[in-house]
Design a protein that fits this description.
The complex is a heterodimer of chains A (232) and B (452). With 232 residues, chain A is mainly α. In chain A, 77% of the residues lie in helices and 0% in strands. Chain B has helices at residues 2-6, 26-38, 45-50, 59-63, 65-69, 77-92, 94-99, 112-119, 127-131, 138-151, 157-169, 177-195, 217-220, 224-236, 253-256, 259-276, 287-300, 313-322, 343-348, 353-362, 392-399, 401-410, 420-432, 442-449, and strands spanning 210-213, 240-241, 280-283, 309-312, 336-339, 365-367, 414-416, 438-440. At the A-B interface, helix 3, helix 8, helix 9 and helix 12 of A face helix 3, helix 4, helix 9, helix 17 and helix 19 of B.
């Protein structure tokens, strides 16, 4: 079972994610759009439109104006999510010379920034979950996929946080493991023997795999929908 | 304005009900609705994206005037859009095919009346698109839903008749050429009585520079704006003309989702502009007419390259104000006035500052609504709802409630709304709720204050 999750599944995860993601973005880009859908006032000119799309996709100004509470939870949720994904690079590899050149104690920095991000995203995800059934207008539009996506993310976050805060986990082990995984030379001896890690990794893979088939696909579609209303 | 009613020689044609499109029923109807929804798979891109992109955050409901008025589940924009979306999901998405109802995928339930009523409770104001973090414009789904209903004969009777009348007579009021000519003579006399100056309202002038296209309501029902515009043209010595055949930019195909009739209705206007040989087609105080001419017809090139430019009279007069070409006696408009942004001008045509420039120049006490500009709330009668008196209670007590409180908060006694639909709906709203607020156009203020 562990071998399945750690030795085989990752390859499928990557294939499914990239394949389905590319397919969906390709289909969207190829679907014809006769006529402009411009919402005014719209940015003037191509570069202004480009920056407008980037601004709206990354800062959510509409939410900021209409629902400040939701903006706080949603924005910090997405930003910490992105930071955590970037931070996971240290699970795969490390840059000791870079840290030395910058004079940074990487382990300490990672503990502080990663730990903070883990707490913020946990709080935001819980708030977003509670909001789903507390507010009438949100309860009405919430279904199984909405609760499921949040619960799955919560499970990934919680298992990750436990590894960071409770039973500390040696990243040297994962670096060896992933290096072998990437080079298709995995030996069972290098597989992390840690139930918490296996759980976290499995949940993470499920999350990655369902992205192209779920509402989380908005991470790719938002640039299309924003461009539609901002292009003159 | 009593004189306006007197100047309304309209020959409304009564038609038997069997003149309407036949209503499809039963299994065939269910199949047609389903097929039309599944065809979204082939495009347009905007609809295909909207089938997948909703994050279910509830923001659209928060900013929707209808949901604000009375929050029932089907008035939640995301749920209304699900009437189309859930059917698409069921057949065209991986998750919908595998998991069905669990992910909100459902087959069309055959309840066409629920479908029609729901999409005719959306005013298509696009306010949700302004705030949605994804930029989803539910009005696009609404128009698709209405287009499906239209094909099957379920467009509300009142709107079907407006379209018939407009295609037959060239205007949505069903007035004939004689009525237009009589109205114009009457308005010229009114202006003369008002200020003692001979201001002409020319029509059918081949060789004029400007072809002016008002909504017919601004000639027949609320003519003060057109009289104000005539004064501006007179002051500037512009060579302009109306058409006695084409004096109504209103085009209800935009509302019913019927692209074919929208194009057909539009044709006469472009032909008239070409016949007159004008340099400019200037649209009047009518947001959706301007949107169709400038942002749909011209952009899509329905009639090829046009030998004239399309502008709006609000842009024209605002420019004159900025250039200091007009003089106003603000003491003629001493009372507090406010401006309502018609959705089509504000969110679809970007004509936002121009009316304010004019109002501030012509009025002593101009007050903004909160919020305003592209964030302004819909009057509650958008998307053709204004013409539907069978839903008057809904418009007065649900969709129009937010606008009522916005107007109340300004303390204004005059509210300018450069749109015949807004004007009709807001006029009814003020009367229904016994408010002493006059509803008119932007150039009404110009008419009263301009110094010739």
């Amino acid at each position: 079972m562990t071998y399945l999750i750690l030795g085989i599944l990752p390859y499928f995860t990557v294939l499914i994610f990239i394949g389905a993601m590319v397919q969906r973005l390709y289909v969207w880009s190829k679907t014809p759009q006769p006529g402009a859908m411009t919402l005014t006032p719209a940015p003037d000119g191509e570069s202004a439109t480009f920056f407008g799309v980037i601004k709206d996709s990354f800062l959510f100004p509409g939410l900021f104006k209409s629902d400040r509470t939701l903006w706080i939870f949603a924005w910090f949720f997405h930003v910490t999510f992105a930071l955590i994904i970037i931070g996971h690079i240290r699970v795969f590899t490390d840059f000791p010379r870079l840290w030395a050149a910058l004079g940074i104690n990487a382990d300490r920095m990672s503990a502080v920034s990663g730990g903070t991000a883990g707490v913020i995203i946990l709080a935001c995800a819980i708030a977003l979950f509670v909001r789903r059934f507390m507010l009438k207008r949100v309860r009405e539009v919430s279904g199984v996929p909405d609760y499921f996506a949040l619960l799955l993310i919560l499970a990934v976050v919680v298992s990750g946080n436990i590894m960071r805060f409770d039973e500390h986990f040696d990243l040297a082990i994962t670096r060896t493991y992933f290096q072998q995984l990437f080079t298709f030379s995995l030996s069972s001896a290098s597989m992390p023997q840690n139930l918490l890690f296996t759980t976290h990794f499995l949940l993470g893979q499920v999350l990655i795999m369902i992205i192209p088939f779920s509402k989380i696909m908005h991470l790719g579609g938002i640039f299309f929908t924003q461009a539609l209303i901002q292009k003159a | 304005m009593e004189h306006a009613e007197a100047a309304k020689p309209i020959a409304k044609k009564k038609k038997p009900a069997d003149d309407l499109k036949p209503k499809m029923t039963g299994q065939q109807l269910t199949q047609e609705v389903k097929d039309a929804i599944l065809a979204i798979d082939k495009g347009p891109r905007v609809l295909k994206l909207y089938m997948d992109m909703c994050a279910r955050c509830g923001t659209c409901a928060e900013v929707c005037p209808v949901y604000w008025g009375e929050p029932t589940e089907l008035r939640n924009p995301a749920i209304r859009s699900d009437l189309v979306r859930s059917v698409f999901k069921k057949h065209k998405t991986t998750s919908g095919k595998l998991l069905g109802g669990l992910v909100g995928a459902k087959d069309y339930d055959g309840d066409i009346q629920k479908f029609v009523d729901a999409f005719y409770e959306c005013t298509g104001c696009r306010r949700c698109a302004t705030f949605c973090p994804m930029g989803i414009d539910n009005s696009v789904i609404t128009r698709k839903g209405r287009a499906i209903a239209d094909k099957l004969g379920y467009t509300p009777e009142r709107l079907q008749r407006v379209i018939q009348i407009s295609l037959e007579t060239g205007n949505t009021d069903g007035a004939n050429q004689a009525a237009l000519k009589e109205t114009v003579r009457f308005l010229e006399e009114e202006i003369k009585d008002d200020c003692g100056v001979d201001v002409k309202i020319p029509y059918d002038v081949v060789g004029a520079d400007v072809f002016f296209v008002p909504p017919s309501g601004d000639l027949l029902v609320n003519p003060e704006a057109v009289m104000g515009i005539a004064k501006v043209f007179h002051k500037m010595g512009i060579s302009w003309t109306l058409s006695s055949k084409a004096f109504d930019g209103a085009n209800y195909g935009l509302f019913t989702g019927d692209d074919k009739s929208m194009k057909e209705d539009n044709k006469l206007y472009v032909e008239e502009a070409k016949r007159f040989g004008v340099k400019t087609m200037m649209m009047g105080e009518c947001g959706h007419a301007h949107r169709i001419m400038k942002f749909i017809m011209e952009k899509a090139g329905w009639w090829g390259n046009l030998p004239f430019e399309i502008t709006n009279v609000l842009q024209y007069t605002a420019k004159l104000v900025e250039d200091d070409a007009l003089k106003f006696d603000k003491s003629k408009n001493p009372d507090p006035v406010t401006y309502h942004d018609p959705c089509n001008f504000g969110r679809s045509c970007g004509i936002i500052e121009e009316p304010r420039i004019i109002m501030k120049a012509a009025c002593a006490d101009f007050r903004e609504m909160t919020p305003n500009r592209q964030y302004n709330w819909c009057c509650g009668g958008g998307g053709g709802l204004s013409a539907m008196d069978e839903i008057l209670e809904f418009r007065m007590n649900v969709s129009g409630r937010k606008k009522l409180s916005q107007i109340d908060d300004t303390g204004a006694v005059f509210c300018a709304a450069p749109c015949s639909n807004c004007k009709r709906h807001l006029g009814q709203l003020m009367e229904y709720h016994k408010r002493d607020v006059e509803i008119g156009g932007v150039h009404d203020m110009v008419f009263r204050a301009i110094v010739l």
